[in-house]
Amino acid sequence: MCYKSLETIVKNSTNIVFFGGAGVSTESSIPDFRSAKGLYNVKNDLKFSPEVILSHSFFINHTEDFFKFYKTNMIFTNAVPNAAHITLAELENKNKLKAIITQNIDGLHQMAGSKNVYELHGSIHRNSCMKCNKSFSLNYILASKSIVPICDSCGGIVKPDVVLYEEGLDMDILESSIKAISIADTLIVGGTSLVVYPAANLIKYFNGNNLILINKSPTQYDNQANLVINDNIGKVLSTVCASFI
User: What's this model's pTM, rounded to 2 decimal places?
Assistant: First the structure.
């Protein structure tokens, strides 16, 4: 019944926005953060929690240790788009989906073919020198002979364009995300527990008719949604949209 209801909503919508979290990429074998097998439960030899390691102050004060953890636990070069990424790209191609707002940094939405993607927490595929701002690819980071990647122009440290704890979100991306949500007729929220702020606050800007929550576990916003589906995001989207994409 829930699937049929969502199918009807999607068919009748002309301005869909998708807001996704870590659960969108778990089906591509990228671990989430808070589950039993998630990143925050990963044991490491640094005697620091992942939340501490992925902070701005830790990056500045323990740069080598940061990159050891980052390269091992945040980069998955073999990951490919799953059914969720592919279906969303097809919905955009059909001009139904107008924007994707993601908390993920893996770039899988773009790999699947999506064009209008707002990456709230940055991307592993963008990196820049902290001194001269020269841009570098992910391959440059991975191919670095030293643990800490160094700019080949000025010798500065090359920092990934990912938002660490203690850092603010990119205001242009945040404002664009808010605008997209505020004019959408349908907002589909998938694969996120909606506990990470300020990202979780974005829902309050939605003024449309249909708020859809798709997540394996309940969220604090379930009672505000028109439809709640507790299942795999890829399975739900590909099944619901199969008939018209």
Answer: 0.93
